[in-house]
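Subject: for your reference before the review

Hello V.,

The reviewers asked for a structural picture of the protein, and I figured it would be easier to keep everything in one thread rather than splitting it across files. Below is the amino acid sequence we used in the manuscript, unchanged from the supplementary table.
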Amino acid sequence: MASIQKRHTASSEIRWDVRYRDPDQRHRTRTFHRKVDAQKFANLVEADLARGEWLDPGLGKETFGEWARRWQSTIAGLAPKTRESYESILRRHLLPRFENTPVSRIDHPMVLALMAELTSTGSGAGTVRNVRDVLRLILELTRRSGAIRTNPVEGAKVPKKPPAQMVFLNADQIMTLAQEVTNPPIRRGAGEHRRAAYPERGLLVRFAGFTGLRSGEIVALRAEAIDLMRGRVQVLASASEAYGKLQFGPPKTYQRRSVPLPKTLLDELTTHLASKDSSDFVFVSARGGPLRHSNFYARHFKPAAIRLGLPQTTRFHDLRHSYAAMLIAENAHPRAIMERLGHSTIQVTLGTYGHLFPSLEASLTEALDDVYRGAKPTPPAKVREIKG
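And here is what came back from the structure prediction:
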């Protein structure tokens, strides 16, 4: 129970002290000039303690910057690329805005104002959403720690991020792109681009287009993962770039898988791997180290796609989409596509590529029509004979 005590100061002024114990049985005191204010506070404290909703006023006075540093220590177990992204958002967008603000003073209108400012200054929907989500994570830690009663980010809506436009290349286009990557125009004084040909880069494009592996999975691929006897590639690891370094870990969704290789591609890989040890990377940089996908994309893939006049939105990941589209065109079962692509569930596969399946409706309807026209009723006498 909270108690109210009247007290005279050294200057003979009257003060009203509200004394109570917090949930940890520590003595707490708050002073008021008026008895009515002290009574209101005492009533609120008693109600909050009874409901288990008491907040530590000291925690609420701590700044957003202090809580952000506390939160950073809780994300050490995340993937390095994710952690780097969170820290970048915190450094670029949140600390400049809230670093010295007590968390108890951050309210819903302030959150909405930040979202509106980001949008009005040209930040994309994805950036605004990511900033909102990191802010929510930090303030959720303060809520669960008893510094604030509700998370002011809850209910803050942001523009929807438009889905990335998929570009589907057919087999001929993949081969043409690979050839262009292999034989780019020679540019004098352009370092690596002074080479006349890059056959290993062209092979990388064909490999991606006819296996559906993600870029990180290709970067992490070692020679021992290519089963030349069985004609399969074992997807065991993935790489990402974070903090200026390559970071290696399990594949996305932690789904290890085995993907069959087309016979001709297998023959090319056999020749490519002839001089490599089992622990060597299948695809390497110009200096022989692990391949940096960002460099390959900027120096080889994207320029080749532009020279060929492919859609401006063409990305390396579209080779994976093209692989899925080719499987669908060959009437592959969604489950088989899911397993080859390493999706966590078949719902992910159908959600990503379901719009491609309706293109098979016509052939399915025609096939059903053939069955319909070929079906003949069985004479009643024959039916009785069969039953007997």
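For the response letter, the relevant points are probably these. Residues 171-350 form a domain with the hpI Integrase; Chain A fold (CATH 1.10.443.10). The two ends are 89 Å apart (CA to CA).

Happy to draft the paragraph if you're swamped.

O.
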